[in-house]
Design brief:
CATH topology of the largest domain: Farnesyl Diphosphate Synthase
Number of strands: 0
Distance between the termini: 47 Å
Low-confidence stretches: none
Largest sheet: none
Shape: globular
Strand content: under 5%
CATH superfamily of the largest domain: Farnesyl Diphosphate Synthase
CATH architecture of the largest domain: Orthogonal Bundle
Mean pLDDT: 90
Order of helices and strands: HHHHHHHHHHHHHHH
Radius of gyration: 19 Å
Length: 283
């Protein structure tokens, strides 16, 4: 690892992600710490996705980040200093950050998942782990909220996968849908790479939609009432992504035509509703 990272605020501002949007619902100190954590997630993910660099170089960079997380920074870096301070402050295991790096690193060594169980493990590393750290920073108090983070992470990542089927196939040749499901519904890998939509592809996507929906439902059941106030940002994410999932289904899973998302005005309305809920709950 060479050089110094941009500031966490700069990284978050550039990304313009739904998570960065949801962080507006947090109190100032927790928001600053989540910005640091989000910036870390963004940096390691960007390293893995930097197609202009050789895979071996990207693996080396990610391993350097992992070593730094587990054993300390070899040189001063403002972002690293921020990230390394989070685990002792919020009492979570530093190895969670290393597991996230393992998850994004796995994209460099594989482009297919044979079974849904393999895909779910990947979703755990790149999404549920993010949730398990986030609930610590958000300030959860009930142990069952960890199950909420686990299942919501699965739901959010599956939604991402469904939304990005076309883009992933076009840009990287990756197919995240389980190959066992492709065979079950009679869909070939080449059909996805060629962006060929038919009733078999629709049935394949319906199977994944049903799984994602089940995880959203389970996450809602898992969240203890006493932690709902502190989980406002997570609930906002759940609302945004579950609406994206419904929009994908309502468009009959035609994800090859365009990347499906919510209009900024709709996301602003969701933010306003949850901010109002947060203010009412704090009174």
């Amino acid at each position: 690892m060479t050089g110094s990272s941009p500031s966490s605020a700069e990284i978050t501002k550039r990304a313009r992600s739904n998570l960065a949007f949801a962080l507006l619902a947090l109190p100032a100190e927790r928001r600053r710490d989540m910005v640091s954590f989000y910036a870390f997630c963004r940096v390691v993910d960007d390293i893995a996705d930097e197609e202009t660099h050789p895979i071996a170089e990207r693996k080396t960079q990610l391993q350097a980040w992992k070593n730094t997380i587990l054993h300390g920074a070899p040189s001063p870096d403002p972002l690293l200093d921020e990230v390394l301070a989070l685990a002792p402050k919020y009492h979570f295991d530093q190895s969670l950050l290393a597991e996230l790096i393992d998850g994004v690193s796995s994209d460099l060594g594989r482009s297919r998942f044979e079974t849904f169980e393999e895909l779910l493990h990947y979703c755990y590393q790149v999404a549920s782990v993010v949730g398990l750290v986030s609930i610590k920073i958000f300030g959860h108090s009930h142990p069952d909220t960890q199950k909420y983070a686990l299942h919501l992470g699965y739901a959010l990542q599956l939604t991402n996968i469904l939304r990005d089927v076309g883009q992933d196939a076009r840009d990287t040749g990756r197919i995240y849908l389980p190959l066992e499901d492709l065979r079950h519904f009679g869909v070939t890998e080449q059909q996805i790479l060629d962006h060929h939509y038919d009733h078999r592809f629709r049935a394949l996507m319906q199977r994944q939609y049903d799984r994602a929906q089940a995880f959203y439902h389970q996450a809602e059941l898992d969240l203890p009432q006493g932690d709902r106030q502190s989980m406002v940002a997570a609930e906002m994410m759940a609302q945004i992504y579950s609406e994206i999932l419904e929009k994908i289904a309502n468009l009959d899973f035609k994800v090859f035509e365009k990347r499906i998302g919510l209009h900024p005005a709709r996301k602003a309305a969701i933010l306003a509703a949850y901010l109002l809920r947060s203010l009412i709950g704090a009174v």
